[in-house]
Amino acid sequence: MSSSVYREREQGQELDFRQQPLVFIDLEMTGLDPERHEIIEIACLIVDPETLEVSKEYHCRVMPEHLETADPKALEMAGFDQEVWEKEAKPIRGVLEELNELAPGGIFAGWNVSSDMSFLESAVRKEGILLEYDYHRLDIASVVYDRLFGDKSLKRIKLTESCQVLGIPRGKKHTAMADAKATLGIYKALRKRQDLVE
After folding, report:
1. Side-chain-facing half-sphere of 33: CA atoms under 13 Å
2. CA–CA dist 27, 113 (Å, integer)
3. What pLDDT sits at residue 1?
4. Which residues, 6+ apart, have CB-to-CB distance to 82 below 8 Å?
5. Could you tell me the residue ranges of all domains in the chain?
6. CA of 114: how far to CAs of 12, 51, 107, in Å?
């Protein structure tokens, strides 16, 4: 991770992390390589870090500029439909600018969030934009590893399996908003369990 794509806070502007909104983010891409493939869908849930209530939702399809480099399997998994995208999708720069206005100073959270962040950081670098977010991130897959390590009903650290073990509605796989909501649901369930233990 490079912090060079994040706008640096001025001295004295540091916040207690408990005051920074969590931004549950999920991306769908045209493949697995952030330098060659592109973001085609983005969803965010802006969440109060204490109550875990959602204050804002954001969803947008992104128009790829280089479909010729896309992995057909990745497009199929993401449900990419050329006609739908031509009607609804926006250019990546506009989407990044909208994203920056959602929750400046927030902390990104997600399922294997480093993968999504590598694409987001690559996109802002290419567009010459700085992210108005904290460079820290919260990986919910790591939280699952820690909190459910002793739960023998969980065999693999996968989003769907974690939802099943915790009784969280899954939604349609590989759609950005459904994945973001499932990830938030898992985090809420784990925080609730922790509160009960304490």
Report:
1. 6
2. 9
3. 43
4. none
5. 20-197
6. 28, 25, 13
What would the two tokens of residue 9 be?
A: 């806070």
Token output for 137 = 């991130």
CA 115 – CA 99 distance, rounded (Å): 18
Structurally, at CATH architecture level, domain 20-197 sits in: 2-Layer Sandwich (3.30)
39: nearest Cα among 160, 125, 105, 104: 125
Length of the chain: 198
HSE-up of 25 (CA within 13 Å, CB side)?
29
Alpha helices in the chain (DSSP H): 72-77, 82-88, 92-102, 113-127, 140-147, 159-166, 176-197
Residue 92 DSSP SS3: helix
Nearest to 59 by CA among 78, 43, 46: 43
Q: Quick one: DSSP state of residue 49?
A: T
DSSP-derived secondary structure for 94-128: HHHHHHHHH-TT-EEEETTHHHHHHHHHHHHHHHT
The region of weakest confidence among 10-14, 81-85, 144-148, 175-179 is 10-14
Rg, Å, the chain Cα set: 17
Task: Give residue-wise pLDDT tens across range 17-61.
Answer: 999 999 999 999 999 999 999 999 999 999 999 999 999 999 999
**CA 108 to mean position of chain CA atoms:** 7
The Cα–Cα gap between 183 and 163 comes to 8
For the entire predicted model, the pTM comes to 0.93
